[in-house]
Write a structure and sequence with these properties.
The protein is an alpha/beta fold and about 280 residues long. Strand 4, helix 4 and strand 5 form a beta-alpha-beta unit. Bound molecules: S-adenosylmethionine. The site of S-adenosylmethionine has 26 residues, from helix 5 and helix 8.
Length: about 280
């Protein structure tokens, strides 16, 4: 099954207003410019600006187009973050075109956790340090965040984390085998709050169906958001998704579990007076 959300994409849907780690407010002109960082060689042939080709398992290109859940932005890419790619990408970076051989990469067999859109990576670092019996794959399109996390991982000599600097839709399709994952964590995905933008939200029926193919039966999907209306959408999508069973209470939500610390975007949301909603589902 293809994991690409193959919605038709019109030119005016590319590079619209968005939301992302380090993002300027949507009204800022800078927020509408596209990413200028050079692509890492491992990322070609998929364009670093979120170009339109995606990659199938085995590396053959296809040309499905999907509405992207992110807009890459200009932002500060510090010398330290740049250096992280030079010094640490060989250790932590993964190629989205190559099927992931987790036992070879991690040198052991352990439960495999995928965190999607880790931003600055503080949660991923924290989890890897506290759940040392698990191996972690992080996926993030925002290059400065990847650099920042690699520096932190190297500083703490953390070895149970590997990273993709890429769109997760392509990673799922190109690198992750069916049933390979034990957990997926998606914390504070871009809310795309305007009505005309909600089609960009990551949590959509097609996407959670794709995740279901990659998560082993008994595995889990943990979502969190600080947007009430996105929480309701997540609940509706998951309630109607086959292959997932809610582990939430009567209202569908759970209390914040011990394995999730406060992320950067959660802190920001709370400062704005937002609530926080966690959803936990089991693959059945
Ligand atoms: C609102 S931020 C949240 C970051 C972090 N989880 C937190 O809570 O602080 C959402 C992140 O998801 C990333 N993202 C959005 N769509 C993505 C995709 N399709 N593949 C990989 N990363 C994506 C964005 O670049 C952004 O850093």
């Amino acid at each position: 099954m293809s994991v690409t959300n193959s919605f038709p994409l019109s030119p005016d849907q590319v590079g619209g207003e968005g939301w992302g780690e380090g993002a300027a407010p949507p009204s800022s002109p800078a927020s509408r410019k596209s990413e200028v960082y050079p692509p890492h060689p491992a990322l070609s042939p998929i364009a670093s600006d979120g170009g339109e080709a995606s990659v199938t398992r085995g590396g053959t290109e296809n040309h499905h187009r999907h509405i992207r859940s992110f807009v890459l932005r200009q932002g500060r890419f510090t010398p330290a973050q740049q250096r992280a790619f030079e010094l640490h990408w060989a250790r932590y970076g993964l190629d989205p075109r190559a099927p992931l051989d987790a036992p070879r990469v991690f040198g052991r067999r352990a439960p495999l956790v995928l965190e999607i859109g880790f931003g600055n990576g503080e949660q991923l670092l924290w989890a890897a340090q506290h759940e040392t019996d698990k191996d972690f794959i992080g996926v993030e399109v925002h290059r400065p965040g990847v650099g920042r996390l690699m520096n932190a991982l190297a500083e703490h000599n953390v070895d149970n984390v590997r990273l993709y600097n890429h769109d997760v839709v392509d990673v799922l399709e190109g690198a992750i085998a069916p049933g390979m994952l034990d957990e997926v964590r998606i914390y504070f995905p871009d809310p795309w709050p305007k009505k005309r933008q909600t089609k960009r939200r990551l949590i959509q029926p097609e996407f959670v169906a794709a995740l279901a193919t990659r998560v082993a039966v008994g595995g889990r999907l943990h979502l969190a958001t600080d947007w009430a209306d996105y929480a309701a959408q997540m609940r509706e999508v998951m309630d109607n998704a086959s292959g997932w069973r809610s582990l939430g209470g009567a209202d569908g939500f759970i209390a914040q579990p011990a394995w999730r610390t406060q992320t950067h975007f959660e802190k920001r949301g709370r400062k704005l007076g937002h609530g926080v909603w966690d959803l936990l589902h089991e693959r059945c």
